Amino acid sequence: METIDMRKAYDPAFVAQVQAESGQNLSLCYQCGNCTAGCPYTFVYDIPVSQMMRLVQTGRREKALSARSLWLCASCESCTTRCPNEIDVARVMDVMRHMARREGYVSEPAVKTFWDCFLDSMRRHGRVFELGLVAAFVARTGRFWTDMDLGPRMLPKGKLSFLPHGIQGKDEVRKIFERFAARSGS
Amino acid sequence: MSQALTYAYYPGCSGLGTSREYDQSTRAVCDALGIGLADIPDWSCCGSSPAHTVDHVLSAALAARNLAKVEAMGRDTAVTPCPSCLTNLRTASHRMADNAFRERTNALLDTPCRNTVTAKSVLQILAEDVGLDALARKVVKPLAGLRVAAYYGCIMNRPPEVMRFDDHENPMAMDGILAALGADVRPFPLKVECCGASYGVARRDIVARLSGRLLAAAEDVGAEMVATACPLCQMNLDLRQGQINSAGGTSHHMPVLYFTQLMGLALGVPEERLGLDKVCVSPRGALRAAAERAAAETAKGSKA
Lengths: 186, 304
Prior knowledge:
Number of strands of chain B: 8
Largest sheet of chain B: 4 strands, parallel
Oligomer: heterodimer
Shape of chain A: globular
Number of domains of chain B: 2
CATH class of the largest domain in chain B: Alpha Beta
Distance between the termini of chain B: 38 Å
Number of domains of chain A: 2
Largest sheet of chain A: none
Strand content of chain B: 5-15%
Number of helices of chain A: 12
CATH architecture of the largest domain in chain B: 3-Layer(aba) Sandwich
CATH topology of the largest domain in chain B: Rossmann fold
Structural class of chain A: mainly alpha
Strand content of chain A: under 5%
C-alpha cells in the first residue's frame, strides 16, 4: 500500500489552479462515486474519475496529471450530468488534460497524436480532411495497420474525399491558432 | 408548412465525407417539409473534441468564427445535424455569456462574435418547430413493422444546462418522430450511453467494447435497426461493426441508419437522395422484413 505524507504531498497551488481554470468549487465533491458509477470509461482508466476528483482535492499534482484517465475521457458528460453537487466534472478532467499537455505529461501518446493531427488538418485547410488525418496519424505513429481493414469497406461507398475541402477563410482559421499560440507563449 | 422556417445551416466536416448521407438526407427531408436551409458561407471546422482538449478559449474561438458568420447572415438560429458540432457551438455560446470569456475569445478572431445566435440540432427543429402532428400528416409510406432502437448518443442532450433539449436521461424526440412515421420504436435503455467517440483510430478496443454493448442491447430489445443522430456514433456502430464482432466474438448484423434517412423513406423522398447505399450494413433485409410484417398485419386486420 502506498503511504503518503499529506504534509508534503499537498500542492495548494495545483488545487487553486484547477479551481480557477475550471470555475468549479472542488470542495463540494463528497466522494459519492456517482460519476464513476456512470462513467463508460472506467474499464480503461487507471484512476476512476471520482478518485481523480479526490486527487485534486488533496493536491496530488503529479499523480493526477500523469493519469492515463485524462487522455481516455471522451467528455461524454455523464459525470457532469449526474453529479448531485452540480460540479462540472468533465470540465475538471478537461482542464487537467490542458495542464498535462502544457506540462508534458502524456500518458496516452497515440490519443494525443490523433488529436494533434486533427487540429493540424483544421489549421491547414480550415476544415478537417478525414483521409489526410488518418494518413498523418499513421505517418506519425508508424501504426501502418491502423484501420487498414476499413479501406475496402469504405472505398465502394464513395464517401471518402481524396482532396481536402479548403475554404477561402482558411487564413482566418490559421490566425486563430497563431494568436492562441502567441498568447500562451508556446 | 410555410417557407417561413428557414435556418442558417452548418453541415460539419464529416458531412462532406464519412457522414455524407446524413447531410444529403437532412437536406432532402427539410426540402420535403418546406424548411429552408441556408448554408453558412465559408464555414470552418468547429474544433470538435480535439480543440477543447487543448484549451477552452481556443475551442470557443473556432466555433465562434461560425457563429459570427451566422450573425452576418442576419439570422439568430444555426442548425446542424452533428451533435459534436452542436455541443461546440452551444458550449461556446454558453461560455461567452461571460463577458471576460467572450473578450478573450474575440481576441483570437478576425471578426468578433456578438453571441446572439442559438445553435440547435436538426433533430430539435424537426421535433419542436415542425412537430410530430405535422410530420405524421406528411407520411406517404409508413415505417410500419420496422422494429427500431432510437440512439441519441452521449452529448445531444448533455449536459442539460448547455444543451437545453429534451430529457437528459431518457430523451424521446427521435422516438416520437419515428413513432409518428409508423415505426415500432423499442424502449432502448442505452440511448444516451457513449459509443467510444473518436477513440476508434487510436484505441479501437474502447470502441469495440462500448459500441458492442450498444449493438447487443439493441438486439436484446428486439430492434432490427438502430436509428442514430450522430456521425461518429453511426461510423462506430456501422463501419466498425466488423471490428466489434472480431473483438467480442459476436455476430452482430445490425443496420444503423440516420434518423433522417428513415424520415426520408416515410416522407416518400426518392431513395437516391437518402444515401441508403452509403451505410456498410445494408438496411434492405430489415426494411423488407418490416414491409412483410406490415402486410401480414394488414391482411389479418382485413380478415377480422
